[in-house]
Specification:
Blueprint lengths: L2 H7 L13 H11 L11 E6 L2 H10 L5 H4 L2 E8 L7 H26 L3 E2 L7 H8 L5 E10 L13 H4 L6
Helix pairs in contact: 1-5, 2-5, 3-6
The structure holds flavin mononucleotide.
């Protein structure tokens, strides 16, 4: 699949079949996720693969009851690593590591789509609850959950704002 087709074709998927996702697919996706750019190539991101039902249930609760978090066969929790980004001081902690994570999530989503799999970026969750559920040390911040599965819905191509509202030439 061409990159442009993957970008164009991807939509958030929130309904999954119960069919499993194998480890090789998840690990290949994460390998590609980690090929995304990162500040200073420090790769201030960690990936937690969650398959266990009770752990997924805890994540679902942390995500204010978004049920697809529990229903997906696998959830990846993308985390920012504050120690790995420490070289860049406050800007590293507040901004770079989050961008490192975001770029990785997008790579992963596009790869999954290219393989016929669905996912949805989940950012609405209680960080402390998620961190507790995963036993995260204090320098690891959970940034995004990514429930993954075989799509059981078609997905909606949601409209975007006209580019003319977003593009500014030369200055604001
Ligand atoms: C930072 C971020 C947080 C998001 N959080 C959630 C979420 O908590 N729950 C959810 O269902 N979708 C969430 N989404 C997915 C968006 O709703 C979705 O990407 C957007 O509506 C555009 O739809 P599309 O992904 O199908 O193109 C989030 C997306 C981003 C980038």
């Amino acid at each position: 699949m061409e990159v442009g087709d993957a970008i164009e074709g991807r939509t958030s998927i929130r309904v999954f079949k119960s069919d499993p996702i194998d480890d090789a697919t998840v690990e290949e996706g994460l390998r590609l996720a980690n090929l995304a750019p990162s500040a200073g190539n420090l790769q201030a991101r960690d990936f937690i693969i969650v398959r266990n039902r009770s752990a997924k249930k805890s994540l679902m609760k942390a995500a204010y009851g978004q049920d697809f978090v529990e229903a997906a066969p696998v959830v990846i929790v993308f985390c920012a690593n504050m120690e790995r980004i420490a070289h860049y001081g406050e800007r590293g902690k507040q901004l770079y590591c989050l961008q490192d994570v975001a770029a990785a999530v997008q790579n992963m989503m596009l790869y999954l789509h290219s393989k016929g799999l669905g996912s949805v970026w989940v950012g609405a969750f209680d960080e402390d609850q998620a961190a507790d559920a995963l036993n995260l040390p204090s320098h690891i911040r959970p940034v995004a959950m990514l429930p993954i599965g075989h799509p059981a819905e078609k997905g909606v191509h949601r409209k975007r704002l006209p580019l003319s509202e977003l593009i500014h030439r030369e200055s604001w």
